[in-house]
């Protein structure tokens, strides 16, 4: 899938990524406390627009990982939460497709292992990060930041 709305996020720092990860974790806590009610999820999305959240432009649950991968020097080019929080999406599982920077994959691989998400080679030299549960992507993001700091 081509990302016509691509934005190069690699200018963002680890601190930017941590801010987004914390926001996303807070959003997931609200959703969990509200039993993932569709109306609540729509309200949260509306609040993101009102607050001009850095998560805007990304499906709920993918922003933290996009920022973390970008801070690690990789270039995410497409993402989707798989419709796990409602709405139609082209595939049923969350994923992020990115181009990897040479020599910078070890923290990504380690973070994927500890957060129980998968990595596969995609088309045209990309790597696909995928999961069976959207809640694992914020865990991956936090683990990646931790691994980068080791």
Summarize the structure.
The protein has 150 residues and is of the alpha+beta class. The chain contains 5 helices and 4 strands; from the N terminus they run H-H-H-E-E-H-E-E-H. It has helices spanning 14-33, 38-50, 63-71, 106-115, 136-148; strands at residues 75-80, 95-99, 118-121, 127-130.
Low-confidence stretches: none
- Strand percentage: 5-15%
User: In one word, what is the shape?
Assistant: globular
Strand order of the largest sheet: 1-2-4-3
Rounded mean pLDDT score: 85
- The number of domains: 1
Approximately how much helix is present in the residues?
40-55%
* CA radius of gyration: 14 Å
Order of helices and strands: HHHEEHEEH
Report on this structure.
With 150 residues, the chain is of the alpha+beta class. It has one domain. The protein contains 5 helices and 4 strands. The chain has helices at 14-33, 38-50, 63-71, 106-115, 136-148; strands at 75-80, 95-99, 118-121, 127-130. The chain has a 4-stranded antiparallel beta sheet with strand order 1-2-4-3, with helices on one face. Helix 4 (106-115) crosses helix 5.
Write the layout of secondary structure elements.
Blueprint: H1 14-33, H2 38-50, H3 63-71, E1 75-80, E2 95-99, H4 106-115, E3 118-121, E4 127-130, H5 136-148
Antiparallel strand pairs: 1-2, 2-4, 3-4
Helix pairs in contact: 1-3, 1-5, 3-5, 4-5
């Amino acid at each position: 899938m081509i990302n016509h709305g691509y934005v190069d996020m690699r200018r963002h720092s680890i601190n930017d990524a941590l801010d987004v990860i914390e926001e996303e974790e807070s959003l997931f806590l609200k959703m969990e406390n509200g039993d993932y009610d569709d109306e609540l999820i729509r309200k949260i999305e509306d609040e993101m627009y009102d607050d001009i959240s850095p998560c805007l432009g990304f499906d709920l649950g993918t922003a933290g990982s996009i920022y973390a991968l970008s801070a690690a020097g990789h270039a995410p080019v497409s993402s989707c939460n798989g419709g796990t929080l409602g709405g139609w999406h082209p595939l049923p599982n969350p994923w992020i497709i990115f181009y990897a920077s040479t020599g910078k994959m070890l923290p990504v691989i380690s973070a994927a292992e500890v957060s129980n998400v998968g990595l596969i080679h995609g088309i045209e030299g990309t790597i696909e990060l995928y999961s069976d549960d959207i809640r694992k992507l914020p865990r991956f993001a936090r683990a990646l930041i931790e691994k980068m700091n080791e």
